[in-house]
Structure formats: structure tokens, C-alpha cells
Amino acid sequence: MDLNQLNSVLAGLPHPLLVVDSENRIRIANDAARELLGSEPAERNYVAVIRQPGALDCIENALRHRRRSEGRFMRAGASTETTYRMVAIPLDRARSGLSGVIVSFEDISHVEEAEQMRRDFVANVSHELRSPLTALAGFIETLRGAARNDEAARDRFLTIMEREANRMNRLVSDLLSLTKVEVNERVRPRDLVDVIALIRSTIAALRPLAESAGAEIDLLAECDTATVAGDPDQLTQVISNLIENGLKYGASGGVVRVEARIVQHFAGFRGPALRIDVIDRGEGIDPVHIPRLTERFYRVDSHRSREKGGTGLGLAIVKHIINRHRGRFQIQSERGHGSTFSVILPIAETADRNAGP
Ligand SMILES: Nc1ncnc2c1ncn2[C@@H]1O[C@H](COP(=O)(O)OP(=O)(O)O)[C@@H](O)[C@H]1O
Ligand SMILES: [Mg+2]
User: What single DSSP character describes residue 233?
Assistant: First the structure.
């Protein structure tokens, strides 16, 4: 194969590729490489084009030692940096008619991002566990020492210790829920669930919580039943998390209202959908926070969330469950006027509707 043939093979490939000869000259730069390196790299010395020490070493090593070599290349964008993994492989002179190396660039930013997210997640979990653990360790020490014979103090401390242990328990349960949903997020649930009945029972279960928050839970269902292909435990968790949030952060409005209706058309859905709105008339959420609320551990006010027993994982769980059910999740809110969290789920295609004439 000569240079021209090689050039036409490499031209349209999606990864940036360079061929550098033993005289350090770039002999081929495919379209993607020209896009990446700017200007016209071909026929120039690679040192003048690449200009990043690590990336230069990679090519130099391959050229000099005639061995495969790896490196990194960074491209700075307007606000983000893209990381490329470079691989330089010596060309087989006998077969290519050229002595030199071929260099490929692979965008690995998403891999780096995932790695960064994993590190952040571990740091967050550790941080969340540390404060209850520190509290527990501190009280154990006090109970052993100064408060050993002080019955009143002992009771008070044990109450706090119980609260901290419960907090760790909730955190661990939420983490397990999150993992479980993520693991089977691609597996579509098959059970047929009447979501209206499920909403009614969830509301009944949350009545005591509503009472202690000093708010009512109202239900306005425009249909008696609504069948969805779903996982009943997970759908209960969605409704329950949203109503609990309404009670925790929106109780000042005195009522959390759940509305359920069937809508015939919703953007992106083929058939009819069930729309559930969980509405509170509390303090609302500043628009800057809304896009981030479903991130793990994102809270508008961490102190307040912790005080209310929150883990910061509730809405992340909700979002993953809804994704698994091929639904949509929307948040609307206005500061001072309350919030509406909407879940839209496809109505199950029942046997009747499938049966043609
Ligand atoms: N109904 C609501 N009204 C105002 N803020 C809310 C409401 N629901 C959720 N939020 C905000 O979103 C954050 C994340 O919610 P969530 O993921 O359920 O975590 P948690 O309730 O454990 O703090 C909460 O900390 C709160 O700041
Ligand atoms: Mg919550």
C-alpha cells in the first residue's frame, strides 16, 4: 500500500489519525485529525503541531524505539477540556512502504467524567456517614465518662444516638434502593399496576406524617383506575418520596395535593399517559436549583434537609425509577408559591386495545 492509498483509507475514519515518518514529518492527517489539531498539519514537523510534552514523548518513543507507545492529548475548549488517549504504533515498513508511526487519538472524556463522578460519590457518602458516626462515638465516650451516673443526660444522649443511628439507616437504605434501580434500569417492568389504588394506599400510609407536619394530603383523581406496566414497590417509592418532600419542605402551605389524570397525548409518548402532579403551596424552589435537584446528594439547604431526616437521595431515586418505567419527570416551582412535581407514565397497552377487529 502506498501513501496515497493509506491516505484514502484513513481520510473518512472517525478517530483523528496521523502518520508521522522517521524524519518527524507528518505525512498524513485525516479529516478528524485536521479538525482536532487545526490548520494544516500535513508535511509539517510533528513537534511544531502537537506541542504538548506528554503527547510528544508518546510519538518520539514509538519512532525511536519502534514500539507501541501511549500518551495523552488535551484539547481546551471554551469551557471544558477534552482528554484524548493517544496510541502510536510503528508502521510495518515492508507492508506500508513507509517507515514511521501511525498515531490515533481517542476521546476518553466520558470515561474520565464517570471516574470523577464515582470519586465524588464515594466522597459524598463518606462525608454523610461521618457526621452521625462522629456524634455516636462522642456520645458513647460521654456516657462512659462524665455522664455515667447522670440519668437525665443519659436519656437525652440516647435519644440523640437513636436519631443518628436512624439517619445512617436511612442513608444506607436509600443507597441500596438507588443501586437496585440502577442495576435494573434497562429491564422494563412487566407487572400491571393500578397506580390510582397505589396512590390511595400511599397517602393512607403517610397520614401520620402529614399530621405531625400540620398539613393535609388531598387527592383529586379524575379516573378510578389507571393501569401501568410497572414495579409496584418502586412506584410506591416515587409517590411516597414526592409527598414526603411536599410535607417536609412545603407544609407551610397547609396542604399537599395529589392530582391524577389520563392525558391522551404527551410529547414523546405513543399512546395515552397517566399524569400525576404532587403539588404543595410551600416556599417553592429558586429556579437555579431546579435542574440539579435530581443529582445525588444535591440539596437546596443541606442543614435543613438533614434536620428533617433527608438524605438528599430521594429525587435521584425518583428519577431513576421513572426512567426505568419509560416515563417523564418534571419540576415546576416558583419561589413563595410552592412546587409541582409531575410524573408522566405510559398507560399499559391492555389486551383489549391490542386486539384488532
Ligand atoms: N416540595 C419541595 N419544596 C421545596 N424544596 C424541595 C421540595 N422537594 C424537594 N426539595 C428540595 O430538593 C432537595 C432534594 O430532595 P430529595 O432528593 O428528596 O432529598 P432530601 O429530601 O432527602 O433532602 C431537598 O433537599 C430540598 O432542598
Ligand atoms: Mg426527599
Answer: H
